[in-house]
Structure formats: structure tokens, C-alpha cells
TrEMBL record:
This is tRNA-2-methylthio-N(6)-dimethylallyladenosine synthase. Keywords: 4Fe-4S, Cytoplasm, Iron, Iron-sulfur, Metal-binding, S-adenosyl-L-methionine, Transferase, tRNA processing. [4Fe-4S] cluster 2 binds at C186, C190, C193. Its EC number is 2.8.4.3.
């Protein structure tokens, strides 16, 4: 979700399945290899690190070649129909590998597992394990059951599980930036959305375990954390005695205080819940990045009401004005759904005019995709023809591309603080890193500078998605 300064049609197109390869430092080894691939949002990628941690602890090592794996896990997404289709296509490739290696165990994890439950075993014969997002601690048992010759399903959702005590193993490749899950589930019931059904009730993780995880990351050389939740603004944790209660602004402050050297990002903010207190906290700490992902979904109040977003156009604009007032220069990105049930041409125009009002830095833009079982699927009709959805989406994308360009051009000539992430993908002579506003910056390698350093870069030019400059 954060990994792009490019305007893309689909989150999950930007994040095709990605394999996770990790070192096993537990000293245990059962001689079996795990291959794990993730789809969907950052929460899923973060969950895969928890799953990897559980599996490494039972003695697995990982591989990035699924053909040689003893266990294949695919961590799935249900957000739109094409996200599910992509997983089904991938399973066909795993089926070929399983013919060659019949004792291979294939497990489906995540949101699609939760949505389809045992039905998955009927629909996809190669699948041995179906496990939902709250049942990962049970994976070693489920694997044992499969070893004993049965199929295994655990899709129980929990009101408590936050995996707070599990130290996620990190991708070994970057070592600079990490995702930290601060809550799970969602209670919002936006009418189009499958997440409340696949992820269950909202629950917040112990604030102390979050701060400890961030401190540990810092001590291990990490310089950037992104706090993750479906709606971070409704984070609320209290201790058992009820003597301590922490809201999101307070959590943000505690995390920012771990070290001024650690940059703090977060996602996703909800327009109905983001408070001035959060904005003031962002303004107060230099190391909290000035970037907010504030999904609007639609610029029209009637559609927002049908979507059950619980804010209207004016409220959203008010929140944008508060951001501009309290944190001047803050970057803002959004999610837009076009072609929602009964959306008229005039209502679509209001989404476009909202985009003009905000001038988003980035946007993730989607055609409405009806999801079985959601309130919209039950009560509304998915009545906008695909050609119309497509045309509206193109208009939205074109507008966003123009806005992204304007926003990048506003950075030209400015000196920015960039956290060096590594060599640029295109050239070993360039470094890449992000500025405070989350834009990718490319600049020539200079001796003595290494990934994890903060540097000042003067921006000289830009492409459609990247700033290019030189170190000062
Ligand atoms: N919790 C976040 C969003 C999580 S899903 C929030 O409330 O903003 C990410 C994005 O996927 C959503 O913001 C929405 O724009 C899009 N999305 C969700 N359900 C969808 C559907 N049925 N069809 C198309 N896009 C959808
Ligand atoms: Fe889905 Fe709405 Fe929850 Fe976001 S806030 S996960 S869109 S129900
Ligand atoms: Fe997809 Fe589940 Fe995330 S549906 S977007 S992986 S919460």
C-alpha cells in the first residue's frame, strides 16, 4: 500500500505475490522447507512475517523456489474479485508442482481462506490446509494433521488475538523499514467491504508491546516503522486494571519518542475518526512523516451514505482543511471506488471535483467489485455497466496523473531529507530513498553514504512518479 508513488489501478497489481525468504536463526531444523507468498494489503505481508516466525520456530527453513518446497503457503486477499482470481491462477501453477512432488503440503491463508472456509477444499482439490487470519498459532498442529493424512481447516475468528508476543521475522533484504501491526480487524462495515467478514472484530494491540517492538527494531538498525491497522484512528488500548488508556495520538507520540532517528509512518486513517490531536502530534514530532493516507472513496454525499462511510463530502473537506492548517505541506493520498451502485454521472463528477479540491499526491483507484455477503451485495444492485465504470475510472486516473505530476513538480529546487533505502532498481550508480512525504527520490551514490543514513537531497527534476536530485 505504501510501496508506490505511482498511480495504479489496483493495489494488488502493484503487489503481485511476493515470496518471503528468511534465515532460520532459531537453531531448530526439521529438514523441511517452507515457501510463502503474499497478496493484498500490507497487513497481509505483515501477517506473513508472523506466520514465518511461527514456522521457523517449529524448525522450518524457507525457500524462494516453490517447486522445491515441502510446504507452500499462499496468503490471500478477497478485496476485489480479480484479487481472488489471481490467487486461483497461482494455485493452478502450484498444482503442477504438486504432481511432481505429491507429498507437498499446500495451505491457503488469509482473507480468502476466511471467506470461503471449508468450501475451498472442495473447490481446489490440491489445497490441504485452510487457515484464517486469527488462527496462525494453530499452523504447526494443522500441518501435523495433514502429515497424518487428513485435510485441516481452522477459520475461527478471535476477539483477542493480536499476536502481540510473536516477534515477526523480517525480510532480510532491506533492514531499514519495517511494518508493525497495531490492531486487527475492523468494525466499520463500509457496505462494499469484505474486510469485517474476513478479519473479524476490531481489537487493539498492547501499546507496550508495540513500543517494545519498535525499540527492538531500532536496536537492530531499522530507521523507519509503519504502524498498520484498517483504521488506525480508532486504536484504543487499556491495561487490564483500567489504569492506563492509550489512543492513537498517544501511541504515535510514544512511538515517535523511541528515537528521533526512527521515522514513523502509519496507515490507514479514516476520515470520520482522524482527530486534530493526531494532526497536532504529527506536527510536534519531526520524525513523524508528514503524509496521510485518507481514503475518500467517493466525493458525493449520497454515495458515501450508501457506502456507509459515516461522513459526507463537507466533513471530508473539513478534515482536509484541518490537515492543511495544522501540518502545512503534508502529503495526502487516497483510495477511490468508481461505479458504486446507482452512481450517477453528476455524482461521479463530484468525485472528480473532490480530487481537484484536494490535489492528492497519490491515489489508488478501483472499479467497484461486488463482494458476496457484504451489505451492498445484499441490499443494493451492482447496476453500473462495466464500460461506464471503465470510462469513469479512466477519467479519475487521468486526473490523478495530472495531480501527481503537479505535486512532484512543486518539490523541484527544494532540499529534502531522504532516508537511503538502497541502490536504485535501475542503476547501481544511484541510491533510492523516500522523503518525508513518501515520494521516491533518486540521487547519485556518494562514497561513505550507506542504506539507513539520512541525507539531504536537492531535487532537480522529476519523472511521473519519482524525484531526481543530488546530495547537498
Ligand atoms: N481500511 C481501509 C481500506 C482497506 S481496503 C479504509 O477504510 O480506507 C483498501 C481499499 O480497497 C479501500 O479503501 C477501497 O477503496 C477498496 N475496496 C474495498 N472494497 C472494494 C470493493 N468491493 N470494490 C472495489 N474496491 C474496494
Ligand atoms: Fe473496509 Fe471500511 Fe473497514 Fe476500511 S474501514 S476495512 S473500507 S469496512
Ligand atoms: Fe485483502 Fe484482506 Fe487486506 S481482503 S486488502 S488482504 S485485509
Amino acid at each position: 500500500m505504501f510501496n508506490t508513488g505511482i498511480t495504479v489501478k489496483e493495489h494488488d497489481e502493484a503487489r503481485q505475490g511476493e515470496a518471503l525468504v528468511l534465515e532460520n536463526q532459531t537453531g531448530k531444523n526439521n529438514g523441511r522447507k517452507l515457501y510463502i507468498e503474499s497478496y493484498g494489503c500490507q497487513m497481509n505481508f505483515s501477517d506473513s512475517e508472523i506466520v514465518a516466525s511461527i514456522m521457523l520456530d517449529t524448525g522450518f527453513t524457507t525457500t524462494n523456489a516453490y517447486q522445491e518446497a515441502d510446504v507452500i503457503f499462499i496468503n490471500t486477499c478477497s478485496i476485489r474479485e480479480n484479487a481472488e482470481q489471481r490467487v486461483r491462477n497461482r494455485l493452478k501453477e502450484f498444482a503442477v508442482a504438486k504432481v511432481r512432488k505429491p507429498d507437498m503440503v499446500v495451505g491457503v491463508l488469509g482473507c480468502m481462506a476466511e471467506r470461503l472456509k471449508a468450501k475451498f477444499l472442495e473447490e481446489e482439490k490440491l489445497v490441504d490446509i485452510v487457515v484464517g487470519p486469527d488462527a496462525y498459532r494453530d499452523l504447526p498442529n494443522l500441518i501435523e494433521r495433514v502429515d497424518d493424512g487428513s485435510k485441516a481447516v481452522n477459520v475461527l475468528l478471535s476477539r483477542e488475538e493480536t499476536y502481540a508476543d510473536i516477534n515477526p521475522v523480517r525480510l532480510t533484504s532491506n533492514g531499514i523499514s519495517a511494518f508493525v501491526s497495531i490492531m486487527r480487524g475492523c468494525d466499520n462495515m463500509c457496505s462494499f467491504c469484505v474486510v469485517p467478514f474476513t478479519r473479524g472484530r476490531e481489537r487493539s494491540r498492547d501499546a507496550h508491546s508495540i513500543v517494545k517492538e519498535v525499540s527492538d527494531l531500532y536496536n537492530n538498525g531499522y530507521k523507519e516503522v509503519t504502524l498498520l491497522g484498517q483504521n488506525v484512528d480508532s486504536y484504543k488500548w487499556s491495561n487490564e486494571e483500567g489504569t492506563e488508556s492509550v489512543n492513537f495520538a498517544q501511541l504515535l507520540e510514544r512511538v515517535a519518542l523511541v528515537s528521533p532517528e526512527v521515522r514513523v509512518r502509519f496507515s490507514t486513517s479514516h476520515p470520520k475518526d482522524i482527530t486534530d490531536e493526531v494532526l497536532h502530534t504529527m506536527g510536534k514530532y519531526e520524525n513523524i512523516c508528514k503524509y496521510i493516507h485518507l481514503p475518500v472513496q467517493s466525493g458525493n454525499s449520497r454515495i458515501l451514505d450508501l457506502m456507509n462511510r459515516t461522513y459526507d463530502r463537507e466533513w471530508y473537506m473539513g478534515r482536509i482543511e484541518a490537515i492543511r492548517r495544522i501540518i502545512p505541506g503534508c502529503a495526502i493520498s487516497t483510495d477511490v471506488i468508481t461505479g458504486f451502485c446507482s452512481e450517477t454521472e453528476e455524482e461521479h463528477q463530484e468525485t472528480l471535483s473532490m480530487m481537484d479540491f484536494v490535489q492528492y499526491d497519490y491515489a489508488y483507484m478501483f472499479m467497484y467489485s461486488e463482494r458476496p455477503g457484504t451489505p451492498a451485495a445484499k441490499k443494493l444492485t451492482d447496476d453500473i455497466p462495466t464500460e461506464v465504470k471503465n470510462r469513469r475510472l479512466t477519467e479519475i486516473i487521468n486526473k490523478q496523473q495530472a495531480h501527481s505530476k503537479i505535486r512532484l513538480e512543486q518539490q523541484l529546487g527544494k532540499v529534502q531529507k531522504v532516508l537511503v533505502e538502497g541502490l536504485s532498481k535501475k542503476s547501481d550508480l544511484d541510491f533510492c530513498g523516500r522523503n518525508d512525504q513518501n515520494a521516491m527520490v533518486i540521487f547519485p551514490v556518494i562514497e561513505g553514504v550507506k542504506p539507513g543514513d539520512y541525507v539531504s537531497v536537492r531535487v532537480e527534476r522529476c519523472t511521473s512518479a519519482t524525484l531526481i536530485g543530488k546530495m547537498e
